[in-house]
Structure prediction request, 469 residues.
Amino acid sequence: MRSGTVYTETVIWSAPEAFVNDAPYQTAIVTLDGGGRVTGRITGDRVAIDDRVVEVEERDGVPFFRKRQ
Amino acid sequence: MARRRQDRRRYPGSMRAVAVIGIGKTPFGAFADRDLRSLAVEAGEKCLRNGRVAPEQVESFYLGNFAGPAFVGQNHLAPYVSTALGINGVPATRIEAACASSGSAFYHAWSEVAAGIQDVVMVVGVEKMTSQPTARVSQILAEAGDCSGEMKAGSTFASLFAMIANRHMHDFGTKREHLAAVAVKNHAAGALNPDAHMRKVITLEQALKAKPIAEPLTLYDCSLISDGAAAVILAPLERAREFTEKPVRVLGIAQASDYVALDQKADITTFPAVRRAGEKAYAMAGVKAGDIQFAELHDCFTIAEIIASEDLGFVTRGQGGPYAFEGCTSLQGARPINTSGGLKSKGHPVGATGVAQICDLVLQMRGEAGERQLKRAELGLAENLGGSGATCVVTVLRAA
Prediction:
């Protein structure tokens, strides 16, 4: 699974129609160790800029990352 | 000779000088009893009267509109609106560029007049948003982002700008109070604007304590969901006085583009499209950032105004927050920004915003801005941003 560093993040309270049941949830842009950036969801602990994260699953093409302990 | 050379630099090739000769706007707000076309027609008719132009004199028509098909279920909007104004038979073209739709429509209308293809060209911007619930509006607006990536992950436009704000705070020390100061300032100006959506003065504390939308942005960091329309008519400067005693010249204008997806940008704390459009518009106008006396900047979110003030060269990178916080951009400041109240307080019917910014600059230049009137309003700038920075139109206007 891919790993990387949080470039930026936010916690969304006001969600679009398709995600209202998920709110609040955290999204982040992650700079991947292999190069490039991707927008994904965060599961588990809340993350901050510069935190290390690892991809734990992919749902419908969306990567989910978790904070690396 | 020297003068001729300078003119050629400002307007390259055989381009003609262009003027705004008429303006018209509806109030912005939530109007349950109004449909898209009636709003567009109201702004258009006011504009025709204002410019003393008969519908049959209009030689080309542009409509700026982001999402009429999704918001109200109507497509083919340009002739749908123009014929209702009595403008028939001429080219009628809709331009979509997210929240920069009517800024882009204005750019293309200007280019037709500057190129000598047409003389009298009308631009209407319109959006009817409030017939949909907020979650649906967020979903429709999200389609201006990359729906194969960032939006699939549950992003909203507020969340994209929240991520921009967080990185700006991280890199430059920008504070929540700086963001809130933009909201307080724009509400203070908007409270004096009879056509504003939310004429309400707010305090810094209210802005900071409002409910979170996407952290760190609260409700007061976000522009409004509004209905409304705005219109302008352009003509060659040499004919402008046939229509108005107070023409305003389009001194410089440029449109630029960038990636739609935020995660494709190398640095999200700056908008390259704003920088590029700004530099080109300044060069065409023959002015520098420091010459601009006042501006309407695209404050879809408070952080966007802060970054635009940096990208347009009003302040250096990272200093946009303190610049707003210290009052430099208030109505009484050295360079007032968003004397209309901005998207924050005036409202943001997205397809109308670019043309509305032009109308607000013209009002100031004509001395018709009422309680918001500035003493110095001869040289102004409008910056209209689409999406998270994928389209930008910058226009420099000067009282002619």
Notes: Residues 39 and 60 of chain A are 13 Å apart (CA to CA). The interface with chain B takes residues 7-20, 22, 24-25, 27-29, 37-41, 49, 60-62 of chain A (CB under 8 Å). The beta strands of chain A are 3-12, 25-32, 37-43, 52-59, 62-67. Chain A has no helices and five strands.
